[in-house]
Amino acid sequence: MEENEFFGEKTFQHYCAEFIKHSQKIGDGWEWRASKDCSDGYMCKTHFQVKNGTAVSHQGTSDHVQTFLPVEEALDPPLDDLEVNETTTAAEVIKYEYHVLYSCSYQVPVLYFRASFLDGRPLALKDIWEGVHECYKMRLLQGPWDTITQQEHPILGQPFFVLHPCKTSEFMTPVLKNSQKINRNVNYITSWLSMVGPAVGLNLPLSYATAASQDEGNVDGQDSSIERKSLEEH
């Protein structure tokens, strides 16, 4: 994808489909949700995490999600299912939701996110940042992280935090230029999400980058599963 290539919604859905395909292979939890009228949709992921950083699945078992534990703690043996259930209370478990939508106005992907305790109490943005790894905290004081605001989700109509897309093209252009220079195929969603995600507690396994470099398919020549599903539902 060239840096000046039009990033339309069809292209967005193709990259999401490729991203979700790899997510399903590694059990990373991303999925596509269509809007009620099936005219559009969004990519989303929900995961639960104990306040001290241990990620758990919906059933309370250890999940394959990158956590924010210090290296020394990360090397300790994980808790088994019984221990997690006994030591975790509703007040300690945090539900994180990440939604990736397409912005028709800016023609780029947009990251919406929110977090809350299981009793429904929402976390403020500063509370989410407290769980971010130390290596990213300095970046929170710099752009584009200073464009995070709270807005209504365009499809759900609920309050979410959002990384405003006004600077996305600005910081993605060098990435796309470099990939073109070295003749390397990249998934726009993978590259973009790996840059913006960590600042709000969302980390991508390195295997996404490998999968993107191996995907040499033509975006315009391939019909994604998302697009096929949309056509079938119409």
UniProtKB/TrEMBL annotation:
Q: Does the keyword DNA-binding apply?
A: no
In its keyword annotation, does this UniProt entry include Protein transport? Answer: yes
Q: Where is the composition biased (Basic and acidic residues)?
A: 225-234
Q: Which Gene Ontology terms describe the biological processes this protein takes part in?
A: autophagosome assembly; autophagy of mitochondrion; protein modification by small protein conjugation; protein transport
Keywords attached to this entry: Autophagy, Cytoplasm, Protein transport, Transferase, Transport, Ubl conjugation pathway
Q: Where would you say this protein principally sits, based on its record?
A: cytoplasm
Matches recorded under InterPro entries: Atg3/Atg10
Question: Matching Gene3D superfamilies, A to Z?
Answer: 3.30.1460.50
Per UniProt, subcellular location reads as: Cytoplasm
Using the record for this protein, list the coiled-coil segments as residue ranges, or answer none. none
Q: GO molecular function, one example?
A: Atg12 conjugating enzyme activity
| Cellular compartments per GO CC | cytosol
Annotated region Disordered: where? Answer: 214-234
* Polar residues compositional bias, start-end: 214-224
Q: Which family does it belong to?
A: Belongs to the ATG10 family.
* General function of this protein: E2-like enzyme involved in autophagy. Acts as an E2-like enzyme that catalyzes the conjugation of ATG12 to ATG5. ATG12 conjugation to ATG5 is required for autophagy. Likely serves as an ATG5-recognition molecule. Not involved in ATG12 conjugation to ATG3. Plays a role in adenovirus-mediated cell lysis.
List the protein's name.
Answer: Ubiquitin-like-conjugating enzyme ATG10
The species this protein belongs to is Bos indicus x Bos taurus
> Gene name?
ATG10
